[in-house]
Amino acid sequence: MQRSRGEFVRVYCGPAKATVHLGGTTMTLTSGRCASPNYFHLDLGTLTVSGPAQFTYLGLAANAYDDGTYRTGQYGGAVIVRIAFQYGGNDQPTYKDTLTLRGGLTRGSFSGFLSRTHERFTGTFTCR
């Protein structure tokens, strides 16, 4: 954890990258990490931990252990998928999140809707 512009931030680094399509905008995020010891997790960019979002960050998480497509509430409510997105100076809450994992949890795709604007977003990622 470090400070930037008076706020606490966490900068992620590593080989992971993603492309996000939102409206007419395409964003490429690089320098991130994937982890899957207990569940799948991807962090890309710089997460603003305190204060308003100052950078672009994408976080994907699901209690998934195998390749497949996951949505919150599957299997009697046992599956939880979370997409955290900071963009344009704001936290961007999401809903109807879907995460598809492939290649032994090393790549995949994701989609959902932004809660504030109801815009659909889609994207792909790779961990290597």
Overall pLDDT metric: 92
**How many domains would you count in the coordinates?**
1
Q: Count of DSSP E strands?
A: 12
Based on Cα principal axes, name the global outline: globular
> Which percent band covers the strand fraction?
over 45%
The helix/strand class is mainly beta
Report the uncertain regions.
Answer: none
Assigned CATH architecture:
Beta Barrel
Q: What percent of the residues sit in helical stretches (DSSP H or I)? A: under 10%
Radius of gyration: 14 Å
For the record, what CATH class applies? Mainly Beta
CATH topology: Lipocalin
* Count of runs of 4 or more consecutive helical residues: 1
- How far do the termini sit from each other? 24 Å
Order of helices and strands: EEEEEEEHEEEEE
Note the main sheet. Answer: 12 strands, antiparallel
Task: Write structural notes for this entry.
This protein is mainly beta. It has one domain: Lipocalin (Beta Barrel), CATH 2.40.128. It is 3% helix and 61% strand. It contains one helix and twelve strands; from the N terminus they run E-E-E-E-E-E-E-H-E-E-E-E-E. It has one helix at residues 74-77, and strands spanning 2-4, 7-11, 16-22, 25-35, 40-48, 57-62, 68-71, 81-87, 90-91, 94-102, 107-114, 120-126. Strands 1, 2, 3, 4, 5, 6, 7, 8, 9, 10, 11 and 12 form a twelve-stranded antiparallel β-sheet that branches. A hairpin with a 4-residue loop joins strand 10 (94-102) and strand 11 (107-114). The chain is globular. It starts with a strand and ends with a strand. 30% of the residues are buried.
